[in-house]
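Quick question, first post here. What does this chain look like in 3D?
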Amino acid sequence: MTPDQGGGGAAMQAGGGADVTAEGGQGGGAARTPAEAKAMAVRASRALAAAGQSDMVWGHVAVRDPDGRGIWIKAPGWGFEEIDDERVQLVSFDRQVLEGEGAPHKECPIHLEILQRRPELECTVHTHAQAAVAFAALDTPLLPISHEGTLFGGRDVPRFTLTGALVQTPELGAALAETLGDAPAALMPKHGLVAAGTSVQAAVMHAVLLDRACQVQLRAMAAGPVRVYSDAAEAAAKKSECWNARQLHAGWEYLARKDVVT
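> Answer (accepted):
Ran it through. Tokens below.
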């Protein structure tokens, strides 16, 4: 796909890492207490449901425990929209349930390995968002054809291709963390997506924006060849304008209000 005179033209590389480390200010600070982290895990789960990223009982979001004990994550067997304080676990970095009921998620290594390698991150998200899964199957670059598509600053989205099966081991979790790098999110072909942020709000919004970018491009490609999209300079500028901390926080607050309404 090549841009016409109104489009962009830089070679697409995976990444766009500045997004994940520039989320201070109104993007929301880190949880200061375990109770706050637990509450944020509930809010994040329900925000993802409000955004349409539920897959029945599958998918999860993890918030770093501020005391360093591990992650707060929804208990297995519940949908995002069903999560409350009683359906959250504290899971240690060696995959032991310290608080909450039941066994830990099989795919806890997704969150544990990323957060262990990236101490500046507060939150990670894994969902089976349908547009992301469908787009990943095409093996085509994600282009900045929309506001959402500029999340990566004109670069392509990273893709984890080592397996399309469950990420159940520390080794696979570490490989996924390596693929994600310092990008805001990555596709997991044949599976879903992973997103991360230095705030819970940013991580949730990164997941939402990646899925929306995939959805827009799928619709465009269904109508014909994609000819117009931002060049690298415009995409980088739009990323700063559209997806700074203030805008990410605004999107998060909308999802919180939507959860209350629904």
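The radius of gyration is 17 Å.
The chain has a mean pLDDT of 91.
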